[in-house]
UniProtKB/TrEMBL annotation:
Keywords, ordered alphabetically: Methyltransferase, Transferase
GO biological process, one term: methylation
InterPro entries: SAM-dependent_MTases_sf, SAM_dep_MeTrfase_SAV2177_type
Source organism of this protein record: Polymorphospora lycopeni
One of the record's GO molecular function terms: methyltransferase activity
Protein name in UniProt: SAM-dependent methyltransferase
Enzyme Commission code: 2.1.1.-
Length: 280
C-alpha cells in the first residue's frame, strides 16, 4: 500500500497564498463578500474543484492549492479518490431506496457530485460560503431536481423550508439521504456531535448519513498542518464512533475512504480521510 499516509484533502482553514496574500480563514472567508466578484480569499471547496480538474474556481483558489501542495505534496489523486467515495456512498444510499438528498458543506456541485451520481434523485445542496453558493446556483440554473442554497450545518433552521420541501420531498415523510462530507474537519467535537444528533432527530427512521472526517495524516506534515489553522480538526478514527452518537454505521464500518466498498482495486493513496454510511 504505497502512500497511505498523507494529507488531508480538505486542507484548509488558513493558507498562505503565493504572492503574499495574507493568511485567511477559508471556511468563513466568503462571509460578507460580494458573490458576484472574484474572491480575494480561497475556498477549500474550490481548491478541490481545481484538483478535480474542474473550471469552477478562481485564481486565488489555484494559488492556495499550489501553496498547500508545496507543503504537503500532490493532492489531485487524493481528492479524486475522495470524490469516488462520495459516488459510492450516494449510489449505496440510492440502492437502499433513498431518492431525496440534503447535502451539507456541499462545495462545488460538479465533478461527480451528488446529483450527477444520482440523476433521478432530488438534491438540495447547502453551504455557508456565498461565493461558492453563487457558483452552485449558476451551475444548477435550469435544473428541476437540484438546487443550491445557504445552510449552516450546525443550525437546520437556516435552511429555507420551502426549498427543503421542494428539493428534499421525502423530508419529514420518508427516509432521506444526508451527505456530510468534507465538513467534520471544520467543527469541534462538541459541535460535531451536537450537529449529528440534531440531524438524527430531524430525519425519519431509515434515513442514511454519508460521512467522512480527516484522520491524523497531516500530523506527519507540520508545514501543511500549519496552513490549516486552528479551526482544523484531525481525528483518530477510533474516536469517531462516539461522535456519531445515535447514528449506527452499516456493516461496512468506518474505513479509509479508498477501502470503503471499492468498485475494484482501491486507489493507492494516503489514508487521509475515513468515512462510511450510518443509519437511523
Ligand atoms: C472542504 S469543502 C468540502 C466540499 C465538498 N463537500 C467535498 O467534499 O468536496 C468544505 C465546505 O464546507 C463548508 N462549510 C464550512 N463550515 C460549514 C458549516 N458550518 N455549514 C455548512 N457548510 C460549511 C465550506 O464553505 C466548504 O465549502
Amino acid at each position: 500500500m504505497a502512500a497511505r499516509s498523507t494529507v488531508d484533502r480538505r486542507p484548509v482553514a488558513r493558507v498562505a497564498v503565493d504572492g503574499g496574500v495574507a493568511m485567511s480563514d477559508l471556511t468563513t472567508a466568503g462571509a460578507g463578500a460580494d458573490p458576484a466578484a472574484a474572491p480575494q480569499v480561497p475556498s477549500t471547496a474550490r481548491m478541490i474543484d481545481h484538483w478535480l480538474g474542474g473550471t469552477d474556481h478562481f485564481p486565488v483558489d489555484v494559488a492556495a492549492a499550489r501553496a498547500f501542495e508545496g507543503a504537503y505534496g500532490p493532492c489531485a489523486e487524493i481528492f479524486r479518490s475522495l470524490r469516488g467515495f462520495l459516488g459510492r456512498t450516494v449510489r449505496h444510499l440510492g440502492a437502499a431506496g433513498v431518492d431525496s438528498f440534503l447535502v451539507f458543506g456541499a462545495g462545488v456541485p460538479t465533478r461527480g457530485n451528488v446529483h450527477e451520481v444520482a440523476p433521478a434523485a432530488s438534491v438540495l445542496y447547502t453551504d455557508i460560503d456565498p461565493v461558492t453558493i453563487a457558483l452552485g446556483q449558476r451551475i444548477l440554473a435550469g435544473s428541476d431536481r437540484a438546487a443550491y442554497t445557504y445552510g449552516d450545518a450546525t443550525d437546520l433552521s437556516t435552511i429555507d423550508p420551502a426549498l427543503l420541501g421542494r428539493y428534499v420531498p421525502a423530508w419529514g415523510r420518508a427516509p432521506v439521504g444526508v451527505v456530510f462530507l468534507g465538513l467534520a474537519a471544520f467543527l469541534d467535537d462538541a459541535t460535531l456531535a451536537r450537529t449529528l444528533d440534531d440531524l438524527y432527530a430531524a430525519v425519519p427512521a431509515g434515513s442514511r448519513l454519508a460521512f467522512d472526517f480527516d484522520g491524523m495524516e497531516l500530523a506527519g506534515h507540520p508545514q501543511a498542518l500549519a496552513l490549516m489553522g486552528e479551526g482544523f480538526h484531525m481525528r483518530d478514527p477510533a474516536a469517531f464512533p462516539d461522535l456519531l452518537g445515535r447514528w449506527r454505521p452499516t456493516a461496512d464500518g468506518i474505513a479509509p475512504v479508498a477501502l470503503w466498498r471499492p468498485d475494484g482495486p482501491p486507489e493507492d493513496v494516503p489514508d487521509a480521510f475515513h468515512g462510511g454510511v450510518a443509519v437511523k
